[in-house]
Amino acid sequence: MTRDLVTVIGGSGFIGRYVVRLLAKQKHRIRVAVRHPNEALFLKPMGDVGQVQLLPTNIRNAASVARAVDGADAVVNLVGILQPSGHEDFQSVHVNGAEAVAKAAAAAGVRRLVQLSAIGADRNAESAYASSKGEGEIAVRAAFPAATILRPSIVFGDEDGFFNRFARLACIPRLPLPLIGGGKTRFQPVYVCDVAEAVARAATQDAFAGQTFELGGPKVYSFREILELVLAEIRRDKMMLPVPFFAAKIGAFFTGILPNAPLTMDQVELLKHDNVVSPDARTLRDLGIDPTPAESIVGTYLERYRKQGQFSKPVEAA
Ligand SMILES: NC(=O)c1ccc[n+]([C@@H]2O[C@H](COP(=O)([O-])OP(=O)(O)OC[C@H]3O[C@@H](n4cnc5c(N)ncnc54)[C@H](OP(=O)(O)O)[C@@H]3O)[C@@H](O)[C@H]2O)c1
Fold first, then answer.
1. CATH class of segment(s) 5-156+190-215+277-287
2. N or C: which end of the chain has fewer CB within 10 A?
3. Hey, whose CA ends up nearest to atom 46 of ligand 1?
4. Residue 316, pLDDT score
5. Rounded distance between C-alpha atoms, residue 20 and residue 26, angstroms
6. Is the pLDDT of residue 262 over 90?
7. Residue 119 pLDDT level (bands cut at 50, 70, 90)
8. Using a 6 Å cutoff on CB, does residue 196 contact ligand 1?
9. 16 lines ligand 1 (CB under 6 A)
10. Which of 30, 35, 54 to mutate for ligand 1's pocket (most ligand atoms within 8 Å of CB)?
11. What is the mean pLDDT of residues 251-260?
């Protein structure tokens, strides 16, 4: 097997670190392109000496993107944001940035491009996140038709922003858990290691060129069922308070202006739509991956939110 040079843009993020670890284990050479390489030094020990290199790159700067993709066999673009901040907004990151990466990869003669999008990406969506992801997909396809586009549902794993967020919220005394929109929205959480495996296969094999895959776990949960799973895993009993979408939007109007906002108005818009794999979509199984159930993983990292950590008893036995 030949070892490729894979540029991973956004390789220091939540999904990126699992992609880098897996590609390093497979003995590929990895160039991690991020804005702050000094904050990505923890990735270097994932490979042998010199196997993982860090390069300062901003996908909003064409010259730095051209440098990052130069000579690569494959390029993975993992850059994405949940809310605008500073110079980063949905248009500049999800649309112009994704297009810049695809154009630079095509110009450099890169063989494979993997673009991380999201379930629900649709240029006509009400949410700015989902519509910009949809626009980004169109721009990537136009510039690099052989790109593989991966659309995960919510991703779970040690550093995730979803299960951890609600587990943290559940630890705040006297604060009920908000059941936004009544908790009926459906999700299909997918394990970060399965997403990393999908990225690695698309980045190193030609068989998936030009295709779009929707990545979900083996089970669909309502928002209420996810909160129930979190509470069971952290062994806490907590009231759930149904919050209609309009009320959640009013709350998000005030919290959304904070950096790392707990909830933005755009996220409330996203929560109005199910986030599950479409019936006709290509999936993890088409990539040869058997999806991992959330129940077998989330307890391993949500344990830290239990009152007595690993020694806590289940709620009914407490
Ligand atoms: N996590 C999920 O549940 C989920 C679900 C569906 C889809 N996705 C998509 O999957 C992708 C990866 O998600 P993630 O959760 O791993 O994101 P993340 O943790 O926020 O990581 C983002 C990465 O991008 C880098 N970055 C940010 N702005 C950049 C820029 N302008 N130029 C270059 N690098 C930049 C960051 O490093 P620096 O700040 O150092 O540059 C970081 O390495 C995103 O496209 C996201 O939309 C994620």
1. alpha beta
2. N
3. 80
4. 63
5. 10
6. no
7. very high
8. no
9. yes
10. 35
11. 79
